[in-house]
Structure to design on (62 residues):
């Protein structure tokens, strides 16, 4: 195998690995935005469901 052929084979393998990684780990901007909005909605729902707000100072006896 010539040197150029080996380089082409290595390059095509690297490109194939990169494409597979993009599929496995990559997320589109729309997916990131959707997740961020969903997280904010869940936090808002949780905060609205609290029974009482935590006090900043411990109770002081009178």
């Amino acid at each position: 195998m010539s040197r150029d052929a080996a380089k082409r084979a290595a390059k095509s393998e690297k490109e194939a690995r990169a494409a597979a990684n993009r599929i496995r780990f990559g997320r589109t901007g729309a997916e990131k935005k959707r997740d961020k909005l969903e997280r904010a909605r869940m936090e808002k729902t949780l905060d609205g469901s609290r029974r009482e707000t935590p006090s900043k100072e411990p109770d002081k006896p009178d």
Summary: The helical segments are 3-25, 29-48. The mean pLDDT is 86. The first helix runs from residue 3 to 25. The radius of gyration is 26 Å.
